[in-house]
Amino acid sequence: MAGVENGILFKASVLQEWTRKIFQHYGVPEKDADAFAASLIDANLTGVDTHGITRMLPTFMKRLETKVLGAETNLEIVREQASTALINCNNGIGQVSSEYAMNMAIEKAKKTGIAMVATTNGNHFGSCSYWSMKALEHNMIGFASTNAPPAVAPVGGAEAMLGTNPFSIAIPAGKEKPFVLDMATSVVARGRIHLYAKQNMEMEPGWALDEQGNPTTDPHEALKGFLTTIGGYKGYGISLAIDMMCGVLTGSSYGTHFPGFLADNLVDPTNLGCIFAAINIESFNDVAEFTETMDNAIRDIKNCKKAAGVDRIFIPGEKEAEAREKRLAEGIPIPEIIVKDFVAMGKSLNIPFPAH
């Protein structure tokens, strides 16, 4: 889970309504504000607090206020074929353009079997799995990926050249929970470091390096230095591949050509590139047969002989699904220090933060 273990509990619906009002205050149309808020609260529900309002809301507010992020999202289809499309987001809201692009990929895949839609001149779209999972209800496999401003040094380098460059794959199952892989190509997302710094929490060893390239568990030092890639040179290779596909292929920013991190750059558009894909299972297999086999495959893994001290083996996405169930029932934990920030923000905008 990404950063928040406990805090003051709030109902998801209450937080989402408050967040929607915040975005509307900055000129975001109501329908877009709903979509924007929904994706952030969903990240909080699944325990991915780095991509929820816990960290991202103040950043989005600053970008909307300075107009470096457009409040209105005007999408333009630049190139299109039967199973592909490239969409210019014109610096609009990442969640709004991503919803349009993923839905387009799904509709195209219904006709062609498999489809990929890319976006350019875009912005941070939240959690990758929020978009890949949209394919599940259509009996499809979903994929989503994005590049990001540099925070990771290539293997052997002492300079940030690559983003955390996450990707997600969602595969439906039958009675079992779906397989949902959502991962950054760095050991942790940079947002998690921010949350640890905000709470003055020590990090796990191996997450990051300081400015001199030395391992550190201090999040404040890590923010001055670099993140580490998963699996050494293998993670570096995956990260570079995503940057080339999301950035170079779509004509977006890539590598060190970004204007800066979201919270630091309040002048220039980010120009992120994203890719969304959908695979129609019926083009390859009967859905009932596929989902039954998926159930068997998942149970095979979960029934694997366990190592000493291990009670349960998890499938990717299972912890997040269980977190959603728990937080829907009990509430989303917001650290007290962040609650105080939200209360102050609400007062300044005359949109009171809800009582818990």
Secondary structure layout plus pairing:
Layout: E1 8-10, H1 12-25, H2 30-45, H3 53-65, E2 76-81, E3 84-88, H4 94-112, E4 114-122, H5 128-132, E5 140-146, E6 167-171, E7 179-183, H6 190-198, E8 208-209, E9 215-216, H7 219-224, E10 226-227, H8 233-248, E11 272-280, H9 287-302, H10 318-330, E12 332-334, H11 336-349
Parallel strand pairs: 3-4
Antiparallel strand pairs: 1-12, 2-3, 4-11, 5-6, 5-11, 6-7, 8-9, 8-10
Helix pairs in contact: 1-2, 2-3, 2-4
Query: How would you describe the shape?
Result: globular
Per DSSP, the total helix count is: 11
Helicity level: 25-40%
Task: Kindly state the number of beta strands.
Answer: 12
Helix/strand structural class: alpha+beta
Distance between the termini: 23 Å
**Sheet with most strands:** 7 strands, mixed
Seen as an oligomer or otherwise, the chain set is single chain
Mean pLDDT: 94
Q: Uncertain regions: pLDDT < 50 for 5+ in a row?
A: none
User: Using only CA atoms, what is the Rg?
Assistant: 20 Å
Strand arrangement, major sheet: 2-3-4-11-5-6-7
Question: H/E series, N to C?
Answer: EHHHEEHEHEEEHEEHEHEHHEH
Beta-strand portion reads: 15-25%
Describe the structure.
The structure is a single chain. The longest helix is centred in the N-terminal third of the chain and has 19 residues, at 94-112. The protein is of the alpha+beta class and 356 residues long. The chain has 11 helices and 12 strands. Helix 2 (30-45) packs across helix 4. The strands form 3 sheets. A 7-stranded mixed β-sheet has the order 2-3-4-11-5-6-7, sandwiched between helices. Strands 9-8-10 form a 3-stranded antiparallel β-sheet. A two-stranded antiparallel ribbon has the order 1-12. The chain has helices at residues 12-25, 30-45, 53-65, 94-112, 128-132, 190-198, 219-224, 233-248, 287-302, 318-330, 336-349, and strands at residues 8-10, 76-81, 84-88, 114-122, 140-146, 167-171, 179-183, 208-209, 215-216, 226-227, 272-280, 332-334. The mean pLDDT is 94. It is 40% helix and 16% strand. The chain starts with 7 loop residues before the first strand and ends in a 7-residue tail after the last helix. Strand 2 (76-81) and strand 3 (84-88) form a beta hairpin.
